[in-house]
Amino acid sequence: MYGIYRKISYQCLGFDWDKGNVDKNWLKHKVSSAECEQIFFNRPLVVQNDITHSKTEKRFYALGKTDSKRSLFIAFTVRKDLIRVISARDMSRKEREVYNNEQANT
Question: In whole angstroms, how far apart are CA 2 and each of 27, 28, 30, 62?
Answer without folding.
Answer: 31, 30, 28, 11
